[in-house]
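re: ur question from yesterday

yeah so i grabbed the chain u mentioned. its 247 aa long if i counted rite. heres the sequnce exactly as i have it in my notes:
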Amino acid sequence: MSIDDLRECLLKSEFATNKTTVHGGFINNLICPECGKSDAYAYANAPWSIVCNRQNKCGARTKTATLFNLGAQVETKYPATEEDKHRPAKTFLELRGIPAESIDKCGCEYHSSTRKGCGGGVMFPVGKDDKGNNLYNGRLFNPPIGEGKTHNVGAVAGHHWQMPDMIYDPEKPTYVTEGIIDALSLIVMGFQAIAVLGAGYDPARFNLAAFGNLVFAFDNDKAGGNFTKKWMEHYQSESKEGGSTHD
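ran it thru and got these structure tokens back, copy pasting raw so excuse formatting
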């Protein structure tokens, strides 16, 4: 989905009014989905969120891709073609604010079939198993209720994702996330990042020695907090034996 498509979707939505204007790089006078007041805005050239301007009373930032359930439409509105068989996967990442140049480098693939009844998803190669089969981790576009959004092909425990062909400086912080799209988002912002494909895995199964300064950036919830503690304890004990530094 292009920026123009997303902007048009926003301007034709119930969150636009007859006072909504595009001016000075902003889409002004939008209705905030949280408080209902028409004091919100979006960036005209990057309308990934509706931002409420009532900072002291609301200040909500609502993701447009989630609001309009655009992820569920990528396979129908932007199907794979002979020229671009991974088009739905690339479109999904665009909806998450990932620029085209990073999408072209990240190794994403479109898998039209995942788990039974779960449709397609954006998948990333993360290594090979003992038999030489490709291992994948990724995100389902539109999982039904009760199904998790993460999908694996093969046993990925102990494998991590890093940006293909990116040179990681071992002296600089490398942020460790659970999901690949989170890591990719940090890389787009100029940070070094990798993904361990799920912080619930045993950290002892991973070899992250190439990254000298790990910063754990797991999900900001109770489970993420518990996983951070577990990973910190593992790597702190390892560093006492002459390993790397970690935060």
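noticed a couple things. The chain has a mean pLDDT of 91. also The chain is about 25% helix and 25% strand.
anyway ttyl
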